[in-house]
Amino acid sequence: MFEFAAALTLVSMALVLFRAVKGPTVYDRILAVNTFGTFSVILIALFGFLDGRPEFLDIAMVYALINFVATIAVTKFIKFARLGRTSNVEEVDDI
Amino acid sequence: MSMSALDITSWALIGSGAIFCLIGAFGLVRLPDLFSRMHAGSIIETLGILLLFSGLAIQAFELLPSTKAALLVCGKLLLIALFLFITNPTTTHALAQAALWGGINPKTGRRKKRGGSS
Known about the structure:
The complex is a heterodimer of chains A (95) and B (118). With 95 residues, chain A is mainly alpha-helical. Chain A has one domain. In chain A, 74% of the residues lie in helices and 0% in strands. The longest helix of chain A is centred in the middle third of the chain and has 25 residues, at 26-50. By secondary structure, chain B is mainly α. In chain B, helix 2 runs antiparallel to helix 3. The termini of chain B are far apart. The interface between A and B is large, with 44 and 47 residues.
C-alpha cells in the first residue's frame, strides 16, 4: 500500500513539474514549486514507513519548514524586487 | 497474514489521500487560470495530507514495536500536518495578493467589453 501511495505521489510530482516548466507566469511556477515541496514531504514520510524507519519524519518536517520560508521569500522578492525594506514602495503592506 | 479492521481502515485512508493528491496535481495542470490552479493545489495540503498522515499514524501502531515510539511518530505526523494546514492558506494568500498586485486578473465567466483592455 505504501508503494501504491508512493507511485501516485511520483506521478503527481511529474504533473506538477510539468506545470512548473510550462507555467505562463512566474506565479504559476512559484505555486508549482511550493506544491512540489509538499509532495516531497509526503514522499519522504512514505519512504520512511516503506523502509521501516519512521525517523525520516524529522527530515520531512525540515522540508516543510524550508518550503514555507522559501515560498514566502520568493513571493516577496517577486513583489518588491528585494528582500529587505520596502521603503520606495508606496503602500507598505504585508504581502 | 490476516487483515485486521485497523489495517483496512489505514489502507483506505492512505489510498484515498494519495488519490486526492493526484486529483490536486491533475487540477494544477488542467485548470485554465492561476487562481483556479491555487484552488486545486490546496486540495493536496488539506484533504490529501490529512487523510494520508492519519493512515500513516494508524500504521505506526502496527509497525513499531513499542507504543511509546508509535506515539512519538504520531506526534511528528500531527505536527507536520498542522504546520502544512496553517502555512498553505498563508502561502496561497501571499501568492494571490502578489499576483493581483502584479497585474494578473482572475478569469471570469463574463464576456469582455468591446474595446476594453482588461
